[in-house]
Design brief:
Elements lengths: L4 E4 L7 E6 L10 H16 L5 E5 L4 E3 L4 H10 L4 H12 L4 E5 L2 E3 L1 H4 L6 E5 L3 E3 L13 H9 L1 H8 L5 E2 H7 L4 E3 L4 H13 L3 H12 L2 H19 L2 H11 L2
Parallel strand pairs: 2-3, 3-5, 4-6, 5-7, 6-8, 7-10
Antiparallel strand pairs: 1-2, 8-9
Helix pairs in contact: 1-3, 3-10, 5-6, 5-10
Length: 250
């Protein structure tokens, strides 16, 4: 494990596993070690019958600012998305237990696209979702180019993933990215309560229902790899180099 990923089994939510991003000084920016830790937890949770639901939580006022900047620059220099990132995305897409998330405040890049894989997301009224991929001369990730249009429709997905427009919690709920918008103080409480209700249901029936609703996972896995290939190619491009230099000069 890493100090920046906390794994919890709340007593008040039997059967629920919590993955908490805990790097407040860096706005929960996700490092390679954090991706690796989350992958291990997701895989272990699939094999653990005691885990009936998995919840992602961030901190007060910030879910995640996206990829850690230093790791991101290393990806750019190496021309790769990073094996740890790709492994996490595949584990996220393949996870067999209900996935929930509670979001308060900033949700940037992967801090937004992770919720496309969640079955229920609760967001505070002060949350903002944004994916500045194209602004950095990059492309969408986490199979978001497949999942977002299905969920939100073409124009909203284009606004989020290509135009880089921010979505308020209310706009995200209207688009289908968020299940419920609540007060900041209620995010964790309501998310864990929903997870506990799911964890109490017959697990086999719930798993079948969830699989039917989610559809073909192989298509999602293939899109993760396709996006990663484009992402890696763009990292090596002149326009990406220029975008990174402009970003660092701010």
């Amino acid at each position: 494990m890493t100090d920046h990923i906390l794994i919890e089994r709340p007593e008040a939510a039997a059967g629920v596993q919590v993955i908490r991003l805990d790097r407040p000084d860096k706005k929960n920016a996700i490092t390679r070690a954090m991706y690796r830790a989350m992958t291990e937890v997701l895989v272990a949770g699939d094999a653990d019958e005691a885990v009936r639901a998995t919840v992602f939580l961030g901190g007060e006022g910030c879910f995640s600012a996206g990829n850690d900047l230093n790791d991101f620059l290393a990806f750019a220099q190496g021309g790769t998305m990073g094996r740890e990132v790709i492994d996490f995305l595949h584990a996220l897409a393949a996870h067999g237990k209900p996935l929930l998330s509670g979001v308060d405040g900033l949700a940037i890049g992967i801090g937004t696209t992770i919720h496309l894989h969640c079955d229920l997301t609760y967001a505070s009224i002060r949350t903002e979702f944004r994916t500045p991929f194209v602004d950095l001369a990059l492309v969408p990730e986490a199979a978001s180019s497949l999942l977002a249009p299905r969920l939100m429709g073409h124009q909203r997905a284009f606004a989020l993933l290509a135009a880089g427009e921010g979505f308020s919690a209310t706009a995200a709920r209207e688009a289908g990215l968020v299940y419920a918008v609540v007060e900041p103080a209620a995010v964790e409480r309501d998310t864990l309560a929903a997870a506990a209700r799911l964890a109490a249901k017959p697990p086999k029936a719930l798993a079948i229902a969830r699989a039917l609703i989610r559809g073909n996972r192989a298509e999602v896995a293939a899109r993760i790899d396709e996006e990663a290939a484009h992402f890696a190619a763009q990292l090596k491009s002149p326009e990406a180099r220029a975008a990174f230099e402009a970003f660092m000069a701010r």
